[in-house]
Amino acid sequence: MSLSTPAHTPQSGLILAVNAGSSSLKISLFHRVSDIAPEKGSTHDVVSLLLNSNVSNISAPPASFTFSLVSHREGREANKQPVESIKDHATAFSHFLDYLKEEASIDRTEIVHVCHRVVHGGDYLEPVVITEESYHHIETLSDLAPLHNGGALSVMEACIVALPRANSIAYFDTLFHRPIPEHIASYAIRQDIAKKRGLKKYGFHGLSYSYILEAVSQYLQKDPSEMNLIVMHLGSGASVCVIKNGKAYDTTMGLTPLNGLPGATRSGTVDPSLIFHYTNRAGRITHDRRLAVDVHVTLAEDILNRRAGWAALTGTADFAVIVRKMKEAGPDASGGWDGEQKYRLAFDLFVDRIVGYLGSYFVKLRGKVDALVFSGGIGEHSVELREEVARKVACLGFVIDEKANAEVGSGDWVVAEVGANHDDGKRMLVCQTDEQLEMAKECALESRFWEQVLN
Ligand SMILES: Nc1ncnc2c1ncn2[C@@H]1O[C@H](COP(=O)(O)OP(=O)(O)O)[C@@H](O)[C@H]1O
Ligand SMILES: CC(=O)OP(=O)(O)O
Ligand SMILES: [Mg+2]
Fold it and tell me: Are 29 and 56 found together in one domain?
């Protein structure tokens, strides 16, 4: 593969933001607003949305595809179409590009920058333009994010072919967590080995936490640097982050996105010794042919990343199905392991792990918490999950407003109030996170990316 710095289309300002999640590809196209306020973190709109597209269930085909233009005058809207040809992130991106060409009169040569969410950024300290060197460096980190980095890299490769005039820029999930203090980010192992091999807590979902911090501080009209938040990003991958005085202070994911909460196909934290009792071939390397880059993970890592979580407990990786089946069975169902009880087990287990971290993080903030925030597909949409978590943390002073909680829907809002306490600092909020918008805003505000392009 050959990567070189592309030539730009002058005067144009389209930003494509691509978010390769573990089971989804979320894509948004933005126009950069020309009179941008200079300082970062500005409340002015620096980009305007043109379209959104989402491919979900990539890891459990058939994948579903949606596409919607902000202005319906051009093209049409695709509402949840199953697409058999989508097998991975690269084919998902290619389907999106075909759809864009056929259904919207947007000239893709006007895309100046493609922002890629890259989950593992190792020790990168800022977003990086993709060159031969940075591409290969991100590739070397793929073993530490086996469900993620490969997908993002395959989309970068597709961009080089399909959008040769656009810059690809990597935005890292890990950046937000750089301020986590050393005693929290370190593992209790020999530090010479840890430092040499980069064995520490990196933390992920950072683009989401960064977006949420700004959105909630605007909502509460408080400076981000004064905010103490406990934020739950609950999606196919799930994590919790504690933000102290506007900076990451701790988070549940670690060296890799496997640690902490369970997820769609991930176990979350287990006793490390469990690995060797689960299978006696745990240390063997498995080569995953479904990924675009060669990922070298052990059988144990493969099992805990891809063959655990909701999918292993219940047979479905879709948390909405788990909640529905659990409710159909009713509170007293006793279907045994193979019956409906497995859905209740998955739900209760998830709630248990979440509230364990909430308690720990509440103590880390010495009880000074501006808000508990729910986000991610499950946090934003599951009334039941929010209600149950709230019930369990009522002892800390968080009280849910059941009516407000039940009425949270999708739509144009960013932050919604679901707590009954609005004044005493123990608020409960839902935030519709937007990693693509976070990347596009950061990109639009970064003058070094625009100097040569727009002059
Ligand atoms: N109403 C709902 N109730 C419970 N879970 C839901 C609901 N709607 C969506 N979800 C879950 O959200 C998860 C996807 O979250 P999302 O953050 O969009 O995914 P990703 O991690 O791929 O970015 C899926 O497990 C989906 O089932
Ligand atoms: C880091 C992570 O798990 O991301 P996602 O939830 O998008 O899979
Ligand atoms: Mg995600």
Answer: yes
ipTM over 0.85: yes
Q: How far apart are CA 89 and CA 151, in angstroms?
A: 5
Residues 168 and 85 in one domain: yes
Do both 329 and 257 map to the same domain?
yes
The alpha carbon of 406 and the centre of ligand 1 are apart by a number of angstroms equal to 17
How far is it, in rounded angstroms, from Cα 148 to Cα 295? 11
Q: Catalytic: 173?
A: yes
- 26 touches 211 (CB < 8 A): no
Q: What range defines the domain where residue 301 resides?
A: 269-307
Counted domains in the chain: 3
Give the pLDDT confidence of 218-276 residue by residue, as tens digits: 999 999 999 999 999 999 999 999 999 999 999 999 999 999 999 999 999 999 999 99
Which ligand 1 atom lies nearest to the CA of residue 23? 22
pTM: 0.93
Protein residues whose CB sits closer than 6 Å to any atom of ligand 1: 21-24, 235-237, 264, 318-320, 323, 376-378, 381-382
DSSP secondary structure code for residue 108 in this structure? G
Do 143 and 261 share a structural domain? no
Q: What is the pLDDT of residues 6-34, one digit of tens each?
A: 444 434 589 999 999 999 999 999 999 87
